[in-house]
UniProtKB/TrEMBL annotation:
One of its GO terms (biological process) is glycogen catabolic process. It comes from Photobacterium indicum. This is Alpha-1,4 glucan phosphorylase. Its cofactor is pyridoxal 5'-phosphate. Gene3D superfamilies: Glycogen Phosphorylase B. It comes from the Bacteria.
Length: 820
């Protein structure tokens, strides 16, 4: 373990005393009566005491140096448990382990007491967490701004195979030990009301917003501890409180008094995270969350700017605001409003600042995920912002007219306002027009953003569209979650790789080394055993670690095609029972996924996989060759056990639809071989590890587009491929739902009569072939060992440290500040 500044200052006796003090004074337990949870809380608080001190010191030194910084605005930060990870970053893992042992405790057990703060849905939120880790590790000045949801993403359980959602009170009754409330940073946020014209002292006619009501924003800071340095950056989460209760519907009706006594309170604004991933629901409360988030964050950025003695004119020189998807887009008209209405800047001066402050990351091309808000909803809740959006659009349309005179078609297409039954505001268009940089999240995705999503914008604003390929933090996703592999890697290439992941390439020369292969495979085996024990303890299913552990872990979505995986499993089931000569290496198919509560087909797919699992896991005819495990309640802390145990990584989205993926990177880093389509970052993983060390299958992006254009005919595949037919038809029997045929037929129906929108049937045969190749190659353990070692060795590019350096060099232009 590398040592760092704080390590030297670590005083074991003092730390133990601090833990015992918190146990008594903060959690009202004595060492004799305390349970494991209280001890974890006390340890967490004792550590937070150290990190909060460093956070304040970092804040002070960065303010004094008055350097440029980035503000990462995101509605989601899927940070996962902090204690273990922060211990690694602080360089205190061993020391604290020894300290708590002297208190009669086991650190590993204590860490299991922590609930995951699940303040995000999936990839987008987890990316934001990895980015904060990499900003702090490399000391690029940054503040993360998010929402302090009372309830994070629901926890999931299964009842009779069906998903059941339970609210996630992640802070528990005692509160979360790592967070600290900052009352001095509170903000007041307006809502509703009207815009009025008045004449100022200089005699100029001005506009101003007169909100009908206000709510209060309370800041909570979570410490993002820099790896092996002294920097601690704030993840600042806003909680909404209301001075008085109010009712939204009645407020809009003008029933002011009634509204005060309604059921809905402004406290509800940050009550719960919307559980949709890659899907826009367009709910009023969600817009309120977005505005509340933006208003608090922009005000706090300006507060810091002025507190450091700066003028408003220098804002773009000192601050960049990164919009994580369109969710915080309303920050743009909010800043314009403040510059014009409060700081009295003219439009052009305000625009010159604002359009050099904001940058936007696009994470998806899926039409159902592109946010559009109805004009009337925005005009009602945020009337002044709607005016400003119209003005931005008016000026933009003038620009379009200059470039393509008289071309109304192009105007209609590019306009921020979509005409129709009710006019809608296209948030992505607003972002592209109003920012200095737009980026996609993998090379392929960024090309498609340019070519298909925003082709004319690329002509209008040459140089604005960038690529920054996503990455993952090697601290959490290797060093912390895979101690066995970490030790082996340390032995071969030293201990600097967690901060310099390219160094992993030094492992490549051991790929053929028999002794190293054996040790690498032994580590994998241990990790498989650790996960198998978890499955035995929590699900009562016995797994054989000699089987191939084949893993698909991600949100449940049709475009991610868990149902393609299911069809392959059904094909194996069919062949084991019907083809006398068919043989396969034992395989465990591991799924973990949450479905959005309103997404019926996604829930059907979960149910089907659970039902198939029930049957195959207990069918003696299969000779133990086939197991299916759907692990409930997928979350960061589960990923930390599953990923190190994976042999095969399923990345099987329809080409062109997964913007990047980041689970693909974590799995390859931990030595799983990818079976995947030419989609998102899979393309770049293949480039790095080489075509021999990945299993690519399926239609390419342009083949997908062509097939859709020509009209995809699912029945053509159904009739031509008897294995596909047998697999699909199993869904119409009662094989997996004894006595209840038809319970699984919605999936078959969707694929055959619903047009198979994600081309599952078109890719099935090639997918089956790729799996046969995996089966053959796994049986040759020397070959497999070489390939898995080379995956770990060759994916250094996918460190989020590199992603952050790309942002820093190409977009944010920051200089690192080393905190003393
Ligand atoms: C989300 O998790 C992603 C995109 C979105 O537009 C929304 Cl709303 C949520 C994911 C992408 O699907 C995934 O491919 C990507 O790796 C991730 O964002 C981070 O960029």
């Amino acid at each position: 373990m590398t040592t760092r500044g704080q390590t030297q200052q670590f005083d074991k006796a003092l730390f133990k005393a601090s833990v015992e003090k918190h146990l008594v004074t903060t959690y009202a337990k004595t060492p004799e009566t305390a349970d494991s949870r209280s001890w974890y809380l006390a340890v967490g608080k004792a550590l937070a005491e150290i990190s909060t001190g460093s956070l304040l010191e970092t804040e002070k030194q960065i303010a004094e140096q008055n350097v440029r910084s980035v503000n990462y605005l995101s509605l989601e930060f899927l940070i996962g448990r902090l204690t273990g990870n922060n211990l690694i970053s602080m360089g205190l893992y061993e020391e604290v382990s020894a300290a708590v042992e002297e208190l009669g405790l086991n650190l590993t057990d204590l860490l299991e007491e922590e609930r995951d703060p699940a303040l995000g849905n999936g990839g987008l939120g987890r990316l934001a967490a990895c980015f904060m880790d990499s900003l702090a590790a490399q000391e690029y000045p940054a503040v993360g701004y998010g929402l302090h949801y009372e309830y994070g993403l629901f926890s999931q359980s299964f009842e009779g195979g069906h998903q059941v959602e339970v609210p996630d009170a992640w802070r528990g009754i005692e509160g979360y030990p790592w967070e600290v409330v900052r009352p001095e940073l509170g903000q007041t946020v307006g809502l509703f009301g009207s815009v009025e014209t008045y004449t100022d002292k200089a005699g100029t006619s001005c506009r101003r917003w007169v909100p009908a009501m206000t709510v209060e924003g309370v800041a909570w800071d979570l410490p993002i501890v820099g790896y092996d340095n002294k920097s601690v950056y704030p993840l600042r989460l806003w909680e909404c409180r209301s001075p008085a209760p109010f009712n939204l519907a009645r407020f809009n009706d003008g029933d002011y008094v009634g509204a005060q006594y309604g059921q809905l309170e402004a406290g509800n604004v940050t009550k719960v995270l919307y559980p949709n991933d890659n899907h826009d629901q367009g709910k009023t409360l969600r817009l309120m969350q977005q505005y509340f988030h933006c208003a608090c964050s922009v005000a706090d950025i300006l507060r810091r700017h002025f507190a450091a003695g700066n003028k408003i004119e220098d804002l773009a020189k000192l601050e960049s605001i990164q919009l994580n998807d369109t969710h915080p887009t309303i920050a743009i008209p909010e800043l314009m409003r403040i510059l014009i209405d409060e700081h009295k800047l003219g439009w052009d001066a305000a625009w010159a600042i604002s359009s050099k402050v904001f940058a936007y990351t696009n994470h998806t091309l899926l039409p159902e995920a592109l946010e559009r808000w109805s004009e009337s909803l925005i005009a009602d809740m945020l009337p002044r912002h709607m005016e400003i959006i119209f003005e931005i659009n008016h000026r933009f349309m003038t620009l379009v007219e200059e470039k393509w005179p008289g071309n109304n078609e192009i105007k209609r297409k590019l306009s921020i306002i979509e005409e129709g039954q009710q006019r809608m505001v296209r948030m992505a268009n607003l972002c592209v027009v109003s920012t200095y940089a737009v980026n996609g999240v993998a090379a392929l995705h960024s090309e498609l953003v340019k070519r298909d999503l925003f082709p004319e914008f690329n002509e209008l604003f040459p140089g604005r569209l960038h690529n920054v390929t996503n990455g993952v933090t090697p601290r959490r996703w290797l060093k912390f979650c895979n101690p066995g592999l970490t030790e082996l890697v340390n032995e071969k290439i030293g201990t600097e790789w967690p901060a310099k992941l390219e160094q992993l390439s030094g492992l490549a020369k051991f790929a053929e080394d028999k002794k190293f292969q054996k040790r690498y495979l032994a580590v994998k085996k241990d990790n498989k055993q650790r996960f198998a024990d978890w499955v035995q303890d929590n699900m009562g299913i016995e797994l054989d670690t000699n089987a191939i552990f084949d893993v698909q872990i991600k949100r449940l979505h049709e475009y991610k095609r868990q149902h393609l995986n299911l069809l392959h499993i059904l094909s194996l089931y069919h062949r084991l029972l019907n083809e006398p000569t068919f043989d396969m290496h034992p395989r465990v198919f591991i799924f973990a996924a949450k479905a959005a509560p309103g997404y019926a087909l996604a829930k059907d797919i979960i149910f089907a996989i659970n039902k198939v699992a029930d049957k195959v896991n207990n069918d003696p005819r299969l000779g133990g060759k086939l197991k299916v495990v759907f692990v409930p309640d997928y979350r960061v802390s589960l990923a930390e056990i599953i990923i190190p145990a994976a042999d095969v990584s399923e990345q099987i989205s329809t080409a062109g639809l997964e913007a990047s993926g980041t689970g693909n990177m974590k799995l390859a880093l931990n030595g799983a071989l990818t079976i995947g389509t030419m989609d998102g970052a899979n393309v770049e993983i293949r480039e790095e590890v080489g075509d021999e060390n990945i299993f690519i299958f399926g239609l390419l992006v342009d083949e997908v587009l062509k097939q859709k254009e020509e009209g995809h005919d699912p029945y053509r595949y159904y009739h031509a491929d008897s294995l596909l037919r047998a697999s699909l038809d199993l869904l119409n029997t009662d094989e997996f739902t004894p006595g209840n045929p038809g319970q699984l037929s919605a999936i078959r129906q969707n694929l055959l009569d619903g047009g198979d929108p994600y081309l599952v049937l078109a890719d099935f045969a090639d997918y089956v072939k790729a799996h046969e190749k995996i089966d053959a190659e796994y049986r040759d353990q020397a070959t497999w060992a070489r390939k898995t070692i080379l995956n770990t060795a060759l994916v250094g590019k996918f460190s989020s440290d590199r992603s952050i350096r790309d942002y820093v060099n190409n977009i944010w232009k920051l200089k690192a500040v080393s905190v003393k």
